[in-house]
Amino acid sequence: MQLLESLAAAIAERVLQLPRVEGVSVRVAKQPPSMQPIDAAAVHIKRTHA
């Protein structure tokens, strides 16, 4: 799951660099056939400027 978390964090950091963006919510999911019977693995993060 660490790769999903890293991807979500990287996306959030890039979005927070945009002008006038105060916060962001990012959800990343994967649904590979090898994970059956699980529907998906996902991570959801929220970031704001400190």
What report would you give on this structure?
This protein is an alpha+beta fold and 50 residues long. It has one domain (2-48). Helices cover 30% and strands 32% of the residues. The protein has one helix and two strands. The model has no long low-confidence stretch (mean pLDDT 91).
Number of domains: 1
As a whole number of angstroms, the C-alpha radius of gyration is 13 Å
Order of helices and strands: HEE
In order across it, which strands form the biggest sheet? 1-2
State the distance separating the first and last CA atoms.
26 Å
Identify the overall geometry.
elongated
The chain-level structural class is alpha+beta
| Average pLDDT level | 91
Topology summary:
Layout (H helix, E strand, L loop, with lengths): L1 H15 L6 E8 L10 E8 L2
Antiparallel strand pairs: 1-2
Question: In short, what is this structure?
Answer:
The chain has one helix at residues 2-16; strands at 23-30, 41-48. It is an alpha+beta fold and 50 residues long.
Comma- or semicolon-separated keywords:
alpha+beta, 50 residues, single chain, two-stranded antiparallel sheet
